[in-house]
Structures are given as C-alpha cells and as structure tokens.
Specification:
- It is globular and about 35 Å long.
- The protein has a single domain, classed as 2-Layer Sandwich (YaeB-like fold), CATH 3.30.2310.20.
- 23% of the residues are buried.
- By secondary structure, the protein is an alpha+beta fold.
- Strands 1-5-4-3-2 form a five-stranded mixed beta sheet.
- Strand 4 and strand 5 form a beta hairpin.
- The protein is built from three helices and five strands.
- The longest helix has 21 residues.
C-alpha cells in the first residue's frame, strides 16, 4: 500500500504537520501505525480502519484519528488528522475531510 499526504495549494501537508506537532512518543506511534498499513496493506494490518461516509475512511488509533481515501494503485491519501477527544468525530473535522476527499477524487489535489 502506498501512502501519500494530501497537499494544499500552499504546499502544506496538514497530516504530516499534525504528526510532526505531536510529542515524540505519540508521533512514533502514529508513524508506526502508518508503516504497518503501508507494509501489510488494508487486510493484514493490525490498525483499526472504519468507514465514515462513502469513500471516506478513518484510521482509529488510541488517541488520534486520521481520515483517508483510497485511490488507484492502491494508494491511500491521508486527508486530515485530529486528536480523539470523545466518542463522536466533530462535524467540522468530518466535513473538512470530505471536502479534501472530493478535491482528491476530482483530480485537483494530491
């Protein structure tokens, strides 16, 4: 599985920025989870993957959520990441991930 980061027109990569902003121990856990997905694919990973809506999915980690979409290849595009703060994902974060997914699927961003 190839994993790439959504890139804004400004060149920023929000998920990469999020991971780099975490304390080292937490960042290492997120990076290890992504490496597991990259190495073993969706079927072999121990990471919990959950459908959100349509083609939008999330990687569920103990303290973090990473939204993604699959495109051809197979390639996973990481769209948005948040710190888990409750049972439900805040609507604004879900909507932002959906907006980015539509841009990726429409071929406007990757």
């Amino acid at each position: 599985m190839k994993i790439i980061h959504y890139k804004q027109l400004s060149g920023r990569e929000p998920v990469r920025d999020y991971i780099l902003s975490l304390p080292k121990k937490e960042a290492a856990q997120v990076i290890a989870a992504l490496a597991d997905v990259e190495e073993k694919g969706l079927e072999g990973t121990v990471v919990v993957l959950k459908p959100i809506e349509g083609k939008l999915w999330e990687i569920k980690l103990p303290d973090h959520r990473i939204f993604y979409v699959l495109i051809s290849g197979p390639t996973m595009v990481l769209l948005h990441a948040i710190k888990k703060e409750g049972q439900k994902t805040p609507l604004k974060d879900r909507e932002l991930a959906k907006k980015r997914m539509k841009l990726v699927l429409g071929g406007k961003h990757v």
